[in-house]
Amino acid sequence: MTEVQAPHTHDRVELRDLAALASEGDRTALNDLLTRVRAVAHRYVRSRLWTYPGGADMVDDVAQEVCVAVFGALSRYRDEGRPFEAFVYGIAARKVADAQRAFAVADVSTPDLPDGADESPTPEEHAVRHSEVQHIMDLLDKLPEKLREILRLRVVAGMSAEETGRALGMTPGAVRVAQHRALNTLRGFVGHEAQLERGAGEGHHG
User: Fold this and answer.
1) CB-facing half-sphere around the CA of 134: CA atoms within 13 A
2) Which of 30, 81, 137, 146 has CA atoms 20 to 30 A from the CA of 120?
3) Where are the beta strands (DSSP E) in the chain?
4) Name one GO molecular function term (predicted).
5) More reliable by pLDDT, 160 or 204
6) Hey, what domains does the chain have and what are their CATH numbers?
């Protein structure tokens, strides 16, 4: 009786093993690798650019740049025991930094006023939304860099503890503990701000 062969798939193969196969010329491994790299890159890039005006529109392009850079760097990649996700994450961080610099130097011109009724948010609504997002980012900036990255990947990018751990070189358990600590710290910041506001309000009425 002959055994039924399982279909050829790399779904459960670690990225570093796929990278090794891809660099040896395995086309299927290369396609699978880039598909998974794109998913990781897309979530990470989105988590870093979503607060920028027009940033959401750039996510696909920057994620594609990450894939191209990973493909170009495959021949230089050496498995030194670190997860391949950390390698991808390093490239993605550089591409995001390039995009953020581009935002910083971009000339923000005033668009022409539309003729008909404009259904898009008013400048006031944009300002309120931006200030809320900016407030969240300001609070995140008070956290140590590692905790900030963990929250970005877990909460904003929606990565699992396992994926985040592979990207940052941590165990899933350590990621969960650090995430818990980061969220508690943020709650403390928010509580402190609320206390200050209450104090200012009472002082104003007194």
Assistant:
1) 8
2) 137
3) none
4) sigma factor activity
5) 160
6) 15-108+129-202 (1.10.10.10)
User: What residues contact residue 86 under an 8 Å CB cut-off, 6+ apart?
Assistant: 166, 167, 168, 169
Give this prediction's pTM: 0.60
Token pair in block for residue 94: 């550089």
Do the Cβ atoms of 66 and 41 come closer than 8 Å?
yes
Number of H helices, E strands in the chain: 8, 0
How far is Cα 19 from Cα 87, in angstroms, rounded to an integer? 11
Question: DSSP secondary structure string, 40-88?
Answer: HHHHHHHHHHTTSTTHHHHHHHHHHHHHHHHHHHGGG----SS-HHHHH
- How many C-beta atoms lie closer than 10 Å to residue 21's C-beta? 17
Q: Which residues of 24-60 are buried (b: 16+ CB within 10 A; e: fewer)?
A: eeeeebbebbbebbbebbbbbbbbbbebbeebeebbe
